[in-house]
Specification:
Elements (H helix, E strand, L loop, with lengths): L2 H26 L13 E6 L5 E5 L12 H11 L6 E3 L19 E3 H10 L3 H12 L2 H15 L21 H11 L3 H7 L3 E5 L5 E5 L4 H4 L3 E9 L3 E10 L2 E8 L4 H15 L1 E4 L9 E5 L5 E5 L5 E4 L1 H6 E7 L2 E3 L7 E9 L2 E10 L8 H11 L1
Parallel strand pairs: 11-15
Antiparallel strand pairs: 1-2, 1-9, 3-4, 5-6, 7-8, 8-9, 10-13, 11-12, 12-17, 14-16, 16-17
Helix pairs in contact: 2-3, 2-4, 2-5, 3-4, 4-5
């Protein structure tokens, strides 16, 4: 065999080995959480309904958030504005705000809703100040409302110092907190409508049209994407909050200081959407739904639970669930419908996911006089 043949043979072997290794690894990746990774400084992917963290990296680290701040600006305005469609004159303080801009002019008239589109689609910093002045009376008062809402949502490592996200002392969040804020905001129909809009037109009081195109590329490239917001400053780097709604499961992804923010967010969302599904774990109960009754008009009574518990799980986690049932095997009549007789618990590993009471689901009456007489003579 000449040198050329040997070289060609080696190349073929190398290609076959590499292909085998690649295919072997790629078949494992979709079923392994550890296959996910990101270059972001901090990241969190959560399931919106339960708040479960599906993937994270430094998710509790306090960082600058850039224009993802506007998620809180928008939901605060929506919750505190009496009429989103009423037009108002833009405050002078909103003119010439640094950074990305709608280029508002003194005397412009817009509705709050129109400016919310400018805020969330093209990230208008001037729009954020105009909204704050109108809804809160002043920017400082509006920022106070933002921080109050953050407390209501239950985030612990976030503080807002402005409405637009330009770098400032005391203006920070975490990937996890921002994901929770976004999950909360997405429950609002108006917010969700705005952040999922790709293109729109707004009209000022003079009848002048402004055409807006959403800066969030994932709305155009990622199936089931429903928003949410981009951001960039020197301190924060490139930031993105994105979300998908697929098969009834809403996922929120936050990447802070991430160069390839669109690409990595898309990968994280698609991977989590494939790995996890929402299950009503109460549908997996397998305890006996009948119980023995002592001294009752019937020997058997029906029992059950009242609540549902929906939770995101991988297939492996679902198989590893442990159900614990703690209730008596018999009860004494009489007993009313809805009486507590025990409880159920659902564990994933050592973690208690859910617990609820077991109840009687019918009235349990005592034996009648005739039944007691028959029992007496039968024993006698």
């Amino acid at each position: 065999m000449n040198k050329a043949s040997k070289y060609l043979s080696c190349c073929v072997v190398f290609v076959l080995v590499f292909t085998f290794m690649f295919l072997g690894v790629s078949t494992l990746l979709p079923n392994r959480c550890y296959a996910m990774q990101t270059s972001a400084k901090a990241c969190a992917v959560i399931e919106s309904k339960t708040g479960r963290v599906l993937f994270s990296k430094n998710h509790n680290q306090k960082l600058a958030m850039a224009s993802t701040t506007k998620i809180m600006t928008a939901i605060t305005a929506i919750e505190h504005c009496k009429d989103l469609d009423e037009k108002f004159v833009v405050s002078k303080k909103a003119i010439g705000v640094p950074g990305t801009s709608l280029y508002l002019r003194e005397g412009d008239e817009y509705s709050t809703k129109d400016l919310l589109y400018a805020l969330m689609l093209i990230s208008g910093n001037d729009a954020s100040v105009a909204i704050a002045e109108h809804v809160g009376g002043s920017t400082s008062e509006f920022v106070t409302l933002m921080n109050e809402l953050a407390k209501k949502i239950g985030v612990k490592n976030t503080h807002f110092a402005n409405t637009h996200g330009l770098d400032a002392d005391g203006h920070y969040t975490t990937a996890y907190d921002l994901a929770k804020i976004t999950a909360y905001a997405l429950e609002n129909d108006t917010f969700r409508e705005i952040v999922s809009t790709k293109n729109t037109k707004i009209v000022n009081g003079k009848g002048e049209n402004r055409y807006l195109r959403n800066k969030n590329k994932l709305l155009f490239t990622l199936e089931d994407c429903i928003g949410v917001k981009t951001g960039f400053t020197d301190d924060a780097g490139r930031c993105l909050v994105s979300a998908v709604d697929k098969d009834g499961m809403k996922l929120v992804c936050v990447v802070l200081n991430c160069g390839p923010m669109f690409e990595e967010s898309a990968t994280l969302l698609k991977t989590c959407a494939n790995l996890y599904k929402l299950y009503d774990l109460t549908e997996l109960y397998d305890y006996e739904r009948k119980i023995l009754v002592l001294n009752g008009s019937k020997d058997i009574a029906s029992i059950g639970t009242k609540e549902k518990f929906v939770y995101p799980l991988t297939e492996k986690e679902k198989a590893d669930l442990k159900f614990v049932y703690d209730y008596s095997k018999e009860i004494e009549a009489p007993m009313k419908k809805g009486a507590e007789i025990g409880k159920t618990e659902i564990f994933l590993g050592n973690d208690l996911l859910f617990s609820e009471k077991i109840y009687t689901i019918e009235d349990i009456k005592p034996k009648s006089l005739l039944q007691r007489m028959k029992d007496f003579f039968a024993e006698w």
